[in-house]
Amino acid sequence: MSINPTLAEMATYPFVRLEEKRRELTAAGVDVIDFGKGDPNEPTDPMIRQALIDAVPERSPYPLAAGLPVLREAAARWCGTRFGVEVDPDTELVPTYGSKEAIFSLAEVLATSGRVVAYGEPAYPVYERGARFAGARVATVPLLRENGFLPDLDALPDDLALLWVNYPHNPTGAPAPLELYERLTELARERDFWIASDEAYTELWFDEPPVSALQASDRSRVIVFQTLSKRSSMTGYRSGFVAAPAEVIAALKAYRPTVGTAPQEFVQRASVVAWSDERHVEETRARYAAKRDVMIPAIEKLGWEIVASQATMYLWVVGPDPDALLARGIIVSPGEMFGPSGKGYVRFALVPTLDECRRAAEILASL
Ligand SMILES: Cc1ncc(COP(=O)(O)O)c(C=O)c1O
pTM for the whole thing? Predict the structure, then answer.
């Protein structure tokens, strides 16, 4: 059998390996506390669940790629209230099936074949994978502690077609200042590349609300990916959107019917409720804040250093040995799983319950 060599060359998706470890430990009777994969364990607000139930029809036809107008309007309205920007729901926004599939396929939708797609690393692995399958050349931009985990804009590669940024950043939890987007959009215009901004974590913040690339003065080269997965703890629903210039949205509307990744209409109707409410998001932030209040002192007491980590559900920590933690039933992600610049760090995803976090803090205290 011959399969696509790009697929054959790829290592197992990192989280598949963590999941295997979790299964092995559980089978061996270990009481596992899993800070590995970033899949929220929070309940989806009852109001959103009810909206989904109420929307399941007797017959559910194929959803259209453009999405329901009522969802596009709710998402565009949210961009307005959250970031103070005007997004045209008909021409500048398209709903997506979560954001991962849309992130993966962007390099294929834009003219990137044979050109360079770059991303900061450590990184969420999908930017690279999408670029490779699209036949682009991949370049990484190291995100270093001394630069606040922001890219060095003087070191961007040549022949750049697309640059990925992701703030607040997974895995470091670093936020970006608006100047980053202002400088990037200037460079993008000068050097003719697209900026793709993965904003999955803008709503998980603790001090001040992060900015969006949509707020840059010139949005003509900016493609933003948003999702309800973390904001509304709706990973399993698969619902997000892309906001971008009309030419990109038109391209996505042309491409997406072939792939068949429009969210189910009952999910879209539940998503309208999710984008239209902030109370449940405030409650979600409070739940993560409570877990931070348990885990941060427990980690620091061991002399380990928490770096960046101002937003997102992650703590980026220097010091722990992931295997030693594993032996005590605590799963974390080794930093190099996200790229070579992650070496020496581990990532705690604050997805276990508050009680589990308390239990983990006790285990840490006993180390
Ligand atoms: C940085 C980043 N972007 C995007 C996603 C994709 O999320 P979803 O497809 O659920 O919207 C994730 C998920 O963990 C992520 O960490």
Answer: 0.96
